Amino acid sequence: MKNNTQKTSRLLKMVMVFSCMLTMVFLVANRANAHKEAHDAETLKAFDDEFIANVILGDRLYHGDPAAAEEMGVVLSKTGMACAMCHPKGSDIHPYEFPKFQEQMSEFAALRNMINWCIEKPNEGEVIDADGEAMKALEAYMYWSTKGSVLDPGRH
Ligand code: HEC
């Protein structure tokens, strides 16, 4: 009787191990399939157009274009100072250093946190949605400005 119970439990264990292995094989096989197909030229162009459209929008916001701010429903500054007046180019704020401990904020900050700090403090503007379209465009412009730089997160 005891022997039978032991046998059943051993069998159960084997079944469990086998199903775990099957699941893993399935997951690995599925992951291998992701990005396997190369994008065709038309799709790549569509992705690039979307990227460049965001860079252009970010550039306009960064340089204080009132039409762009109105379009996006954001108030990035109430002092009359655009980002570019203190940081002439998007690359001047070295986006490749983020995230890092930011002394002005006394906290560990991602690029978008610092963007909002500047909007709120020196610019006396209205903080923007960290996941919103205007933030994504500002980030796109800054990263585009520094394209090719070596990532160096945490640097000061
Ligand atoms: C009146 C001047 C002024 C304006 C306008 C301004 N900033 Fe700043 N910004 C600062 C100061 C001061 C710092 C902190 C010192 C530093 O890190 O260079 C800073 C730092 C930053 C940093 C971090 C740079 C780093 O390497 O740590 C980012 C990002 C940034 N600003 C983005 C913006 C954006 C985006 C705007 C426009 C919405 C903007 N700033 C407008 C003064 C300004």
Uncertain parts: none
Q: Quickly give the CATH architecture of the domain at 42-145.
A: Orthogonal Bundle
Cross-sheet strand order for the largest sheet: 1-2
CATH superfamily of the domain at 42-145: Cytochrome c-like domain
- Following the backbone from N to C, one meets helices and strands in this order, namely HHHHEEHH
Characterize the overall form.
Answer: elongated
Largest sheet: 2 strands, antiparallel
**Total count of helical runs of at least 4 residues:** 6
Binned strand content:
under 5%
Mean pLDDT: 90
Distance between the termini: 71 Å
Task: Describe this protein's structure.
This protein has 156 residues and is mostly helical. It has a domain at 42-145: Cytochrome c-like domain (Cytochrome Bc1 Complex, Chain D, domain 2, Orthogonal Bundle), CATH 1.10.760. 56% of the residues lie in helices and 4% in strands. It is built from six helices and two strands. Strands 1-2 form a two-stranded antiparallel ribbon. Strand 1 and strand 2 form a beta hairpin. Helix 2 packs across helix 6. The radius of gyration is 25 Å and the shape is elongated. Bound molecules: heme C. Heme C is lined by residues 76, 81, 83, 85-87, 93-94, 97, 104, 111, 114-115, 118-119, 122-123, 138.
